[in-house]
Design brief:
four-stranded mixed sheet, 2 domains, 11 helices, globular, alpha/beta, Rossmann fold, N-(1-d-carboxylethyl)-l-norvaline Dehydrogenase, domain 2, 315 residues
Length: 315
């Protein structure tokens, strides 16, 4: 199968490596010329779980380009960019999306489906989310952070042949994948959980596992979960009775030594996805008259951290 992955970050590289090892024709599109050049010259470097030496990476050959407009055709497009890049990314590959080539958005944030739907027909868009984790290293190398289930589904909840085909493709390539009738609800669950983990790990500058070692951080994260749940309920989002607390503890245990993607962005002086996570929860809360003081405070602190970065501000 010809697969285009838009976004060469940690998760994009991991999916690309699994799919390429499964004998698919994989093309990664990314605007970072250093990453594209490294993938073009050496492929994706995958450092195994528990391995610390980047030189021990397994190299997986893929095609890498910086401009998706040059691609003529494919069978599947995976959207795996940061939320703030969704519009530009979808515009670059919109010509590929059709009845025969769906766009599967696998992102952690709210508003991405709506943004993509303003560019390509909504009926060609599928939603997804993954608990697979990884950390971007230099060039095109990624450290595999651990396995986790990927959920995919139609926006209207139907279990269709095209979703079944993608599920089979992913599972055949070693990506544990399930179809979901309530994929939007699952996405909300993940956003609520990671809107507790990501910013707190970034403010404290600790790996995810540290957050469940202290009662103070656990209490703070629980407040964020409770506020997020109230917003979801106000928006009539079916969270499928999910235990958000258990999901949070499991996510921290599963990625105990990992730096969250938001903390990685802060340390690398990149913009974070705070607007599509805590910021989105705050916007939905305002629309529905729900008070979310903890999310609002966390959102403002991360925006300040984005501006000033780690270290001391020069006077």
């Amino acid at each position: 199968m010809k697969i285009v992955i838009v976004g060469g970050g940690a998760i994009g590289r991991l999916f690309g490596s699994f799919l390429a090892k499964g004998n698919n024709e994989v093309t990664l599109v990314d605007i970072d010329n250093e990453v594209v050049g490294a993938m073009r010259d050496h492929g994706i470097g995958v450092v195994a779980l528990g391995e610390d030496d980047p030189d021990a990476a397994t190299m997986v050959p893929v095609t890498a380009i910086s401009d998706g407009s040059s691609i003529k055709e494919c069978d599947l497009v995976l959207l795996m960019v940061k939320s703030y890049s969704t519009r530009v990314a979808v515009e670059s590959i919109a010509h590929l999306v059709s009845d025969n080539c769906p766009l599967l958005a696998i992102q952690t944030g709210l508003g991405n489906i709506e943004a993509a739907g303003r560019i390509v027909p909504t009926e060609h868009i599928l939603a997804g989310m993954t608990f697979m984790s990884g950390t971007s290293l230099g060039g095109a190398t990624v450290r595999y952070g651990g396995s986790g289930t990927t959920y995919i589904g139609e926006l209207d909840g139907r279990l269709t042949p095209r979703v079944e085909a993608i599920k089979k493709l992913f599972n055949d390539c070693g990506i544990d994948t399930r179809m979901s009738r309530r994929v939007i609800g699952r996405l909300w669950c993940k956003v609520i959980v990671y809107a507790a983990i990501n910013p707190l790990s970034s403010l404290l500058k600790v790996p995810n596992g540290c957050l469940i070692d202290r009662m103070e951080s656990i209490t703070l994260m629980k407040r964020l979960l409770d506020e997020g749940r109230r917003v979801a309920e106000a928006c009539d989002i079916d969270l499928a009775g999910s235990d958000l607390y258990e999901q949070l503890f499991e996510a921290c245990r599963r990625s105990t030594n990992n730096l969250s993607s938001m903390l990685q962005d802060i340390l690398n002086e990149r913009s974070t996805e705070i607007d599509a996570q805590n910021g989105a929860i705050c916007r939905y809360a305002e629309e529905h008259g729900v008070a979310v003081p903890t999310h609002q405070t966390i959102f403002e602190l991360i925006k300040l951290l984005e501006k000033w970065r780690p270290g001391l501000e020069q006077l």
